[in-house]
């Protein structure tokens, strides 16, 4: 972590978010920041520490404790493929493999270089009766196949 502020970063947006919350509402502040940037940029940690009168390490520990927060940039479209038992049994892995191959991603590289797509696996999306399931920016798509994933991906690419 660094205590050096990035001159090119828009701290005005952070100030607006901080003003909307109690100083102790670090989780809510981080959620709002992530909603704007799709991840938690490193510039926010020293700035929030100063503004919230706490340590960078406290804010960083909250950001890394909760799986929902990301320190890595995410794509415009975040695709989550469920690999829970019901989805796995109903062949979610071929869907995941198709998406990764088509987008040039793998287990370690989850986001395309142009920041258009992020592909992640999740343990369960809570829609077992609709398996296999994936979400695109939290919109549920059920009964997926590699073919339907290809059609969906094609429409997302067209929308870019």
Structure overview:
- By secondary structure, this protein is of the alpha+beta class.
- It has 2 domains: 11-65, no CATH class; 77-159, Glutaredoxin (3-Layer(aba) Sandwich).
- 44% of the residues lie in helices and 11% in strands.
- Strand 3 and strand 4 (139-141) form a beta hairpin.
- Helix 3 packs across helix 4 and helix 6 packs parallel to helix 7.
- The longest helix has 14 residues, at 146-159.
- The chain starts with 10 loop residues before the first helix and ends with a helix.
- The mean pLDDT is 93.
SSE blueprint and pairings:
Layout: H1 11-19, H2 26-37, H3 44-52, H4 56-65, E1 77-82, H5 85-89, H6 92-103, E2 117-122, E3 134-136, E4 139-141, H7 146-159
Parallel strand pairs: 1-2
Antiparallel strand pairs: 1-3, 3-4
Helix pairs in contact: 3-4, 6-7
Task: Describe the structure in brief.
The protein is an alpha+beta fold.
Spatial strand arrangement across the major sheet = 2-1-3-4
Major β-sheet, in short?
4 strands, mixed
Total helix count? 7
Strand content: 5-15%
Give unreliable regions as ranges.
none
Q: What is the overall pLDDT average?
A: 93
H-E order: HHHHEHHEEEH
Distance between the termini: 34 Å
**Helix- and strand-based class?**
alpha+beta
Supply Rg: 18 Å
Total E-strand runs:
4
Total separate domains? 2
CATH superfamily of the largest domain: Glutaredoxin
Q: What share of the residues lie within helices?
A: 40-55%
Globally, the shape reads elongated
If classified by CATH, what would the architecture of the largest domain be? Answer: 3-Layer(aba) Sandwich
CATH level 1 name of the largest domain: Alpha Beta
CATH topology description of the largest domain: Glutaredoxin
């Amino acid at each position: 972590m660094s205590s050096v502020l990035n001159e090119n970063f828009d701290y005005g947006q952070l100030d607006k978010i901080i003003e909307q919350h109690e100083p102790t509402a670090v989780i809510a502040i981080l959620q709002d920041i992530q909603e704007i940037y799709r991840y938690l940029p490193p510039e926010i940690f020293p700035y929030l520490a100063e503004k919230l009168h706490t340590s960078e390490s406290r804010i960083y520990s909250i950001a890394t404790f909760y799986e929902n927060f990301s320190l890595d940039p995410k794509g415009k479209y975040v695709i989550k493929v469920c690999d829970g038992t019901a989805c796995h049994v109903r062949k979610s892995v071929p869907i995941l493999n198709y998406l990764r191959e088509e987008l040039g991603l793998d287990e370690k590289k989850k986001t395309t270089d142009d920041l258009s797509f992020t592909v992640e696996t999740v343990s369960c999306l809570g829609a077992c009766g609709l398996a296999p399931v994936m979400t695109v920016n939290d919109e549920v798509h059920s009964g997926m196949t590699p073919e339907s994933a290809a059609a969906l991906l094609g429409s997302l690419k067209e929308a870019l």
